[in-house]
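ok so i was messing around last nite and threw this chain in just to see what happens. nothing serious, just curious
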Amino acid sequence: MANPVRLVDPNSLERNPENPRLIFRGEELDALQDSIGQQGILVPLTVYEHGKKLTILDGERRWRCSLKLGLSAIPVIVQPKPARMQNIMMMFAIHNARRDWDPLPTALKLQELELEFSSRNGRPSTEAELAGLASLSRGEVRRLKKLLSLPESYREELLRELEKPRSQQVLTVDHILEITRGAEALKKRGVLSAAKEDQLRRALVRKVRTGVVNNTVAPRMLARLARAVGRGEVSMQTARTVATRLTKDSKYSIEDAFRQSVEQADFEHGTEQLITRLIARLKEHASRGYPPSAQLTDLLSSLGAELRTLKARTSA
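result:
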């Protein structure tokens, strides 16, 4: 039998301490408040009894709006009080349905769920177990745990950014993660020391704020530079020169650094891979004894003409 809906004083409710939602944006609450003011609360809040208070499982934004509107009664459905681990799991299940939590607060709560699991079971959770507990994919768990590995200063900066209205936010979690991956790739290749890695990361964060870095894809070029250094296509000195300029020159973009270091080598490496696959494909075509079609013959003729042109440019 379903739990009946009760009407209760919103002042008798309290927020759930396990709710990962830390940011409640004013413009979103205003829109919800207007809707509740006109139509009332259409979907009851889900709560559990905790002493003389009712603790919210689902519906904190509706509750906050009801307080602002001065409502005397709101509809709730009372559920049995969950254990702490179950409470956190329920919060994540709600998140999985709504997809409206910010990544960093979610990561912090995921860490608490992981610690609670370890406390109860005497061992760390596996990635698969943690994903199941949080109703997340394993890829999402890895992404959130990567956020937790960021220095505290970056996490604090992201939280301050999240407190702004969405229209005013510039720096995002994806900016930080992509910049971190790019800088780490250069450090692993020996282009940067640990200290210079952090200097580069901070410089690129500043460039996000000034618009010099205006997307989350550009930092991936740093990993491509690192791979080119590893293949011997770009010298260590060249890589260090552009990395230093990226750190010190506030107008110098990642695209500038890419063009001046790895663009040609990276393009030619991609071309080499395509040609290698094409040669293997043509050999397989011949081994199967297929007669080339007219269209394939024309394309091979065009390819031959391009190769002759390229060879002539090389010889000039």
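not much to say yet. Residues 188 and 226 are 8 Å apart (CA to CA).
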